[in-house]
Amino acid sequence: MDGVTNYDVYGSLRGGKNLGYVGTREKVTQYYQGEQREWKKLAQSKGCAFIPGTSPGFNDRGVRPEKDHIPLSRRLNLNAKEGSLFRAALQEARTLVDPQLDHLIMVNSFNEFHEDTQIEPVVAVDGSKGLDSQTNLPTNLTYGLEYEAYENLYLNILKQETKKWDVSSLAASAASTVASTSVTKAASTIQTEEMCIPSSTNEDITTISDIIGLELD
Hints:
Elements: E1 3-5, H1 25-45, E2 49-51, E3 53-54, H2 84-93, E4 104-107, H3 139-142, H4 153-162, H5 170-174, E5 189-192, E6 196-197, H6 208-212
Parallel strand pairs: 1-2, 3-4, 4-5
Antiparallel strand pairs: 5-6
Helix pairs in contact: 1-2, 2-4
């Protein structure tokens, strides 16, 4: 394929701007409808297709402590739900998909745990779940941000936000550079670093959870 993508959204949605949090849903919209939309325009002006990129968060303090990077929380803000950043990113990214590449979206990543960008299921070693599985320790690694054993949450979010949506609505959403769209029918294609899943239309599409054999909510 002849296309470009933003592999590392951490550099643009840097958590250090707000002590580890993006802050608001509107800031995610501004990033995608501002920076990523401009990248898409530039790519297409050169005859190159574009793949919008997403990531659930970022934290490399466990492997690069000398860099002292401020993590990017998986929550939009302190009071937001686990996975709220990923959900917002997918909702915005799907307004920028390119039909030249079968509406691909880049998800960084499936299992890069060393940078905390993984969406692969996670369970607590002690069997705890939900609020009981949350911790901000050790703070030298977490920067004081909350982390939890989220189990299948991110695969569920990926499935919910891409299972059924209307690609035909993209023409309308492209006219707006600030508003986030909510689309609910048809299909998309998801690309992670490890796999690329082809789309279909007007039928149930194949998702990551289908391929790895998980029955998700």
